[in-house]
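Work package 3, deliverable 3.1, input record:
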Amino acid sequence: MESASLLEMNHITKRFPGVVALDDVSFRVREGEIHGLIGENGAGKSTLMKILSGVYGADSYEGELLLAGKRLALRSPHNARLAGIGVVPQELSVIESLTVAENIAVGQYNKGGPFVDPGVLRKTIAAFLASFKISLDAGQVVFRLTAAQKQLVMIARALYANPHVLILDEPTSSLSLNEIENLFGILRSLRARGVTCVFITHKLTEIEELADAVTVLRDGRVTGVFQRGAFTEADLIAAMVGRKIENLYPQRATPIGDAEVLRVEHLTVAHPIIANRNLVEDVSFSLRQGEILGLAGVVGAGRSEVVNALVGRLPCTGRILVDGREVRIHSPQDAKRHGIALVTEDRKVDGLLTNMTVRPNVTINSLPLISRLGILDARGETRQAAEFCGRLNVRTPSLEAMITNLSGGNQQKVILARLLLANPRILLMDEPTKGVDIGAKNEIYRIMVDLVSKGISIVMISSELPELLAMCDRFVVLAGGRVQDEFPKSEASEYRVVAAATRTRGAGAGGGANGRS
Amino acid sequence: MNEAKPESTPKPQSLGGRLRGVLSVPEVGVLIPLILLSLLFYALKPVFLSANNIAAILRAVSFVGIIAIGQTFLMISGAFDLSVGSTAGLCAIVCSYLMVNLQVPPALAVVIGVAVGGLVGLVNSFVVLKLGVPAFIATLGMLYIARGASYLISKGYTIYPLPESVQTFGLAEPLGISWSFLILIGLGIVADLVLRRTVYGRTLYATGGNKEVARLAGINTNLVSMSAFVLVGMLAGLAGISLMARIVTGQPQIGQGWELNVIAGVVIGGVSLFGGSGTIAGALVGLLLMQVVNSGLVTVGVNPYWQTLSVGVIMILAVTIDLIRRRAKIQAS
């Protein structure tokens, strides 16, 4: 043993009815390190963390949990917190109407009796934040903060309890590139102060950048433990998926067509609440047949607003030309008529019919196709749904399984099947691989390449720069709602995208309406 | 990309699995208490299951049942209407006023009465969908407006005598029950087919399940919601006029309290308050359950105040059972 483990989980086995979620898992974290825990969705990361954070009590699993050499028998999350385990959950759970200080101290107000003095609390928290070099205003009301700042509030809340070990569950899933950099900076400074972190993620690049050691989980088993510098990306992928993914990013084999399918001129989307401010301003671009165009930029740069305006979900001005002819798109119905379809950013919010089964989720965009005179043709519907689920390799126990019981990747493929059944010509994909495991990502990329070979054109938005750079033929970089740069794949580089994406941050981004860059 | 395809052949199931399958049919959750309670009342007072009493229960359930069909459509599409009772009253008053005071032929008066219900629904949908007033407030307001209007038209008095033909229709007892019950059954079958087998039915579920998904699918969700509001208004009118025919007078109090009976019954029957799920069969069985409890307590001779209390208890109980059942279903699969 090289150096003492601060946290040890030995031979953990956790069973659910009919499933072994964790099978003899051992997990050791040394003091002062950032330990990456990586695995696909369903690999057992969350289960392991729920044991560690006391959600699953000590008597619900086999194996032992040691912290600083002492055996822990946790009974509840509160218990875990008292024992010195701080958890930053994946979902943002902040109280929007309270201040930063109140949010950080939540549950720990009563250090001075039943009354809370907001002034004292604010000063205490401000000093605490300064000591960790976290730049947040303790008096600010949380609903004014960005997602990244809320994430920091959650981290600060966990730190405030002065934990031995800090667990971060996919903290970057809702952050943009430079916000992630900022977060990593804070984690590094925590490491420098001797705070031990467990960092859960499914992004390989983050592990490479940050982790001192990494444990890989697959199907409830540990399939690899690596020290910094002793692994390659291929090692991690092989451990994660149990097979080699030959080429994660398949490349197109067919040339891009010549016809210009979509042309957007001077697209402007006004801010829904604030007058004289635009979310998207004077954006122009074109899309050729069979081309994949990447819309790059940080979260909030106006990327989602562009595609949502194109399907008529946001009112906009400017010209939209499909096949060279100007079209008016005031509603998703109009967009559908012109063959424009959108994969929405968050499938839970506006992607799935969550209380329905797979079948109606596939066919909902194509009701005329599966009906005659307004009467549904049940057999035809099942046939169409089965065909498209098969074509996109949707893994589901049956077409009558509830959509919510499918994995994220398969849900995303169901949404793609739904759009493709309606036969679109232009596919707008807003973060199509968000919350999807690496195997399903690969499948989605393959589907994209297959689609463009059939002449469908794609606009892709992604916050994961490597996938965007690999998949797209051309790039339009937005910042502050404006086009900052445009270049073909041959000239693309991570540096060029980031440089353009951050060009107007700070000074120009807020007041997109004034100050041309 | 073609190896794994969805299996379409059902696998042989264990007895437990089959039992769970039966239990996961939404209507069964209400059918079991319905049967148990009926047997309980029968054991206490055998007269409870006499042909006369059963016919009385079915007659009583038919008015609210007609409205429940519309309310089920509306709730599946993601809204609800609290004004149905008052709308029923207003339509009955309009219909009887036309027949008695203006000598309009009964058939035409009925059509106009039902149309007034549709108009009320149209106004409701305008206030909810275009002005953006929450359905709870908009239809609560309409509850007062329609009731006030029926008192204004009738000046607070009962309108009679209604034409002979109305009396013949209202007091007739085909199959020993009533015409309105047969109307309910007919409408129920049609409504069930519409919900399960038509594009319109599917768009209702989609709109209530996730409005944004429905919009992106090219569905005019406002039109869908509007149609459901109009439908529930018309059916409320039909129910009010049916009761008017049964009691052979136009009373401005017709329909008082129906709105909550309808919603309670429909919710007991497993129609989601949040839209996107529910069936006609479930809704009607839920209503029947409430009527059986009411009628059973009367037959057994329980203090009438207990009836009101029991409706509340049953409603909370039924929804709780439904929630537990749903949770169990998600874990099982």
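Residues 17-332 of chain B form a domain with the ABC transporter involved in vitamin B12 uptake, BtuC fold (CATH 1.10.3470).
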